Amino acid sequence: MRAHRPLAHSLPSAAEPKTPRPPWADLDGEVSIEVEELAFQSGQVITELKAQVKVSEALLSVKDITAKLKGGGLVGDANVAYDPIQNPAYRVASSFVFKNVDPSLFSKSNYSKFPVQGLFDGQFKFAGSGDTLEEAGEDSEGDLTITGRNGVLTAFELDSRSQLGLIGAGILGQSLNRPGITAMAQAVPYFKDIKFESFTLELVRGKDKQVRIPELNLMGDNLNISGQGVIAAGNLGELLEQPLDLTLRFGAKGRLIDYLETLQLLGTKTSEDGFRNWNQDINIGGSLGDPDTSALKELLNNAARRALDKPGKAEAAGTSKPPLKDGQFLPRQNKASEPAPSEKKEKSKEEALRDDIEMGLELLNSIFG
What we know:
- There is one protein chain.
- The protein has 369 residues and is α+β, with helices and mostly antiparallel strands.
- The chain folds into two domains: 17-139; 144-369, no CATH class.
- It has eight helices and 17 strands.
- The strands form two sheets. The chain has a 15-stranded antiparallel sheet that branches.
- A hairpin with a 4-residue loop joins strand 14 and strand 15.
- Helix 3 (160-175) runs antiparallel to helix 8 (343-368).
């Protein structure tokens, strides 16, 4: 007779558990947790963290979570279910509500550089499943809604060099009788430290791990910014660092309308809130934590360069100036019936005008980079 190996040894490895047991598999019971202080990489600190934990191999439940964050706070629940018979074996779910929270809490970077400041309320719900606990967390789907009030948007920064350029541009616009340059110098500061009365941001993460932005809205005294977009698929923990594709629509109110109208940036429609719509949208790249606002700077830059070639009414009614081509002024062509002025005098006027234009372009560069 032929000898047979024991049946247990002849079973294929597939009979072994398909998924690893959870780290808490050997625990069973309930416990109350209290943490006096918990620090994040962003510099934010959570205090008085409390929670009720119930644990068994099949379930890790964390309920009645409460914590304080610089005068604000959050409450919520989270749980992880494990069933090796199910496919996938792990299921996670979480739900939190927070009030008066600094949004830089969600950033890994230095919170002083976060593009929006203020206190915000919000809520988020996420649920996912996977063959491992890590997969279940990374494959989570859900939504996050943030609302704020009386805050500041700092995404459009002006350094000291740019501010000096604005002062010079304003003076140059008046001396050259170029109202467009003066308007640009007066309009750009409206985009530095934009104060808002209300702010709304909604994020929705789907199965493809992309995060849609169905709503972004900022309402200020002189500016209204609204838009939609998408954040590239990636790890949930790196949401603020993933590539951003956002389309923004701008509206203006008050004195800003006069400046932008001079720069030919406004359309004809006015919203129900009284904001005059711009005549084109702005595309924002970069990331949610560090947005690239160069498209707005380029739009204002081009408008300002056009303004260099547009004189005020007094000059327009008088002697015409040389035409502009690719940032350079072309020599004036005399009509046959006009007497030719002295070569030295014409050259002097032309050189002075060219010098003024070059100075204007240098100032624009100092403002927009």
